Amino acid sequence: MSGANSLIFGFTPVGVGKSPAEPVGPRTNRGQKSLRAGFACGIDWLAVTIPMERLEECSATNLDYLASFLVGGSSGIRVMRPSGRRLNFYENSCAMLDREGELVGHVCFGGNGDTLMFELSGAGCRWVESWSFVRRQLEIVQGRISRCDVALDDFDGALLDVRALAERAKAGEFAGSGRPPRSRFLDDHGNNTGCTLYVGRKGHKELCVYEKGKELKDEGSPWVRCEQRFYGKHFRGETGAEAERGGLPFEILTAPLRYLRGAHALLARLTASIDLDGVVQSLKVVRAKVEASGSAAVAWLRTQCGPMLGLLYLALGDDTSVYIRKRVTREGLPTRFRGLGAADQLPQLLRAELCRALS
């Protein structure tokens, strides 16, 4: 049976790939979040190639259990049926969805040296409970990390300033042992939609610093995100078995800040005061997204619907809330709140933000 066929029809993985029943909502991202308020660091993209032969040896070729085997059953990520569509130079591909039904990655197979590609987007990475578990599983199946993005969130804008970093990039301060990397700056010209700085080249080693809060349409948010994108084919620094295997080292999954600091001396200096060796729930990033989206939603509601809601209260008085509940509200989530990773905790998180704004 060929690798592709064994993947489609497969068998149930056993042993190390088993995980307990999944909880609802975001959870602990062990070893990757800051104990210091205002910062968080973690994996924001992961792409791995795995030999089909090794997956067969581990009885991990069943698509229904592949995501559970690699990232843990508590993630709630599901691999859908093969689409027959070529992707990433593979002959076939499957979409991966999270428990909210959002697209969070792909599984690609067929060709490419009889390997499988497992690609998890930033939206999917937020559901990973333990990156130590992922690292162990990838070591078992002899995976090769071809891309890994490390994200550092500065929620209060205390250390990272996009415009200031753009000036330092222009001055050549991101230079290493050679010439300064290319950089480009996307300016919002003061309209508060958010600025973005790129340093380096996609496919090699690319840094992206942008105003995350403003991207979520909260014009007053100070939240800045720094994403360092690493690519395995251009990574240097490992020796011995790691170098022979190729790709990025597995350690990047459990010590992401070390690699982010190592990418640029300037980043190392800027983040020297941050202690990210402790354990904090990944809920911090989700809460920040809900806060930014909630602020933007209330601003939109006030601008677009405020006068009409005011008129309803004048016309109906105490019956207004009942009328709105029966005749105005409907099921489903606004687009801005989809894919945040809050799951069933979204109402509670949004309530906390709205009540905080009233206090």
Could you walk me through the main structural features you see in this protein, from its secondary elements to its overall organization?
There is one protein chain. The chain is built from 13 helices and 10 strands. With 359 residues, it is an alpha+beta fold. It has a 10-stranded antiparallel β-sheet with strand order 2-3-4-5-1-6-10-9-8-7. A hairpin with a 5-residue loop joins strand 4 and strand 5. Helix 11 crosses helix 13. About 8% of the residues have low confidence.
Shape: globular
Distance between the termini: 65 Å
What is the average of the pLDDT values?
A: 82
Strand order of the largest sheet: 2-3-4-5-1-6-10-9-8-7
Number of helices: 13
For the largest beta-sheet, the strand count, sense and barrel status come to:
10 strands, antiparallel
Rg computed from alpha carbons, rounded to a whole number of angstroms: 22 Å
Low-confidence stretches: 9-36
| Beta-strand content bin | 15-25%
Per DSSP E runs of 2 or more residues, the count of β-strands stands at 10
